[in-house]
Amino acid sequence: MNRFDGKNVLLTGAASGIGRATAVRLLAEGATVFAVDRHEDGLAETGRLAGGTELLGGRFVAHAADLAREEAVVSAAAAAVARLGRVDVLANVAGVLRVTPMESVGLDDYRDIFAVNVFAPVMLCREVLPHIPDRTGVIVNVTSTAATKAHPGMTGYAASKGALLSFSISLAAELASRRIRVVPVSPGGVATPLTANRETFAGVDTSWYARTYPLWGRPGRPEDIAGTIAYVASADGAYLNGVEVRVDGGSHS
Ligand SMILES: NC(=O)c1ccc[n+]([C@@H]2O[C@H](COP(=O)([O-])OP(=O)(O)OC[C@H]3O[C@@H](n4cnc5c(N)ncnc54)[C@H](O)[C@@H]3O)[C@@H](O)[C@H]2O)c1
């Protein structure tokens, strides 16, 4: 028996990295996944990696949308509900990273980061909530260890993840009467296109980053985080609620 047989998942950021690995994992465990991302080709590749449409039947649905735009978020939620009916799991994984030294920070940097990392998950929660079942529904918000640990040069990103973490903790308490769980999952450094983009880090000293992996001497893999998200979202995680789940290999700085 697969843990996600008969479960419907709305997953953002599914075209790459952690979101892609999560889609592949949840599909392998029987879920139907409504996958949202701005990259249509990446979504198609995720479907292919998960086994292809023939094998998956109608269990993988790709929906291209720019989550930085409120109307696109609202219509993605409506499309997901129209397709799935009930949303057992909402997994907000999509995110953006900017590295900007404080002297060069503009409010637009913060607005752009917050639009994807905070406002989109918040609006998706609001839109999908009426369709999340009481007692079994789960919301997983992917935050970051940057929410609570110093990440020099990444103040906007860190602040956005801190906001998403706080939001998740309070929402968990708010939804407790419906027995809907809300769990923020905070990865440490994970090797994905988000962190591999050299342009993002141009001119910034990131040598500290590589020293923070005491467990295996390597950053996390997307699959490490996907496995945790699957656990948290499944009945195995039924007693986890409103608490940050850090998946960072024991990272210490
Ligand atoms: N990689 C890390 O080290 C790390 C660490 C902690 C937290 N995280 C978080 O994990 C999540 C996934 O990151 P990742 O490392 O897999 O990065 P990634 O860049 O590989 O994937 C992010 C996905 O989000 C999508 N996305 C970004 N902006 C979007 C928008 N406006 N509309 C729709 N989709 C959009 C991208 O297209 C991409 O597919 C993010 O929230 C990130 O902040 C990553």
From TrEMBL:
Domain of life: Bacteria
Keywords of this entry: Oxidoreductase
Protein name: SDR family oxidoreductase
SMART domains: PKS_KR
Gene3D superfamilies the UniProt entry points to: NAD(P)-binding Rossmann-like Domain (3.40.50.720)
InterPro entries: KR_dom (IPR057326), NAD(P)-bd_dom_sf (IPR036291), Sc_DH/Rdtase_CS (IPR020904), SDR_fam (IPR002347)
Organism: Microbispora catharanthi
Family, as annotated: Belongs to the short-chain dehydrogenases/reductases (SDR) family.
UniProt key word DNA-binding: no
Molecular function in Gene Ontology: oxidoreductase activity
Domain Ketoreductase: 7-204
Pfam families hit by this protein: adh_short (PF00106)
